[in-house]
Amino acid sequence: MAAAVVLRPLCRLCCVVLFLSQFYILSGGESTDIPPYVMKCPSNGLCSRLPADCIDCKTNFSCVYGKPVTFDCTVKPSVTCVDPDFKSQKSFVLNMTCRFCWQLPEADYECVSSSNCRAVSCPRQRYATNCTVRDHIHCLGNRTFLKMVYCNWTGGYKWSTALALSITLGGFGADRFYLGQWREGLGKLFSFGGLGIWTLIDVLLIGVGYVGPADGSLYI
Questions:
Q1: Which of 167, 191, 162 shows the shortest CA–CA distance to 179?
Q2: Looking at per-residue confidence, does 151 or 88 come out higher?
Q3: Nearest-CA neighbor of 42 among 94, 85, 91, 78?
Q4: How many CB atoms within 10 Å of residue 151?
Q5: 163 or 126: whose pLDDT is higher?
């Protein structure tokens, strides 16, 4: 009976201590923050294949454009990687081509697309947008840059559907209605396809891609 009386306060004290320790950790007293770049860095992979966000390199902007160049690099804190012999390392040499990020091929970066321009126009329209280099591509300068790119978007219109409508129901303006050109569609409808002449012309123009969607987008 006496033992139970002694153990009961001890159990309560242990519960209080446990609660306070958990509250201390959750409130940030014991920091468990992980740098955001770590999520992009594969663990125990080759250092030379780490994304650019995972390493710091001593770059030299005086290198010759288009020529191979080597830079001394170190991995960032909390990043682990190995050399070709699977030995852990923190410093390594990175081989790359001397060029700025904005000089990379289009396949090496992603740009924010825009639908506020006409993809079908002569000459082709361009627009300014922000582009970001892909994670595993290494280059000089800022990895996010402004660039003029060609307007290249689609509103979901199919070229095959437009051509089929032009051949079969072009005399009633179905092709123009489908492309969102309702004024031209009404003109063809009430003129019976311009007595057939307009219909034949539209078949040729849609077939070669000269006539496209009214919103200026590309066919899919």
A1: 162
A2: 88
A3: 78
A4: 20
A5: 163
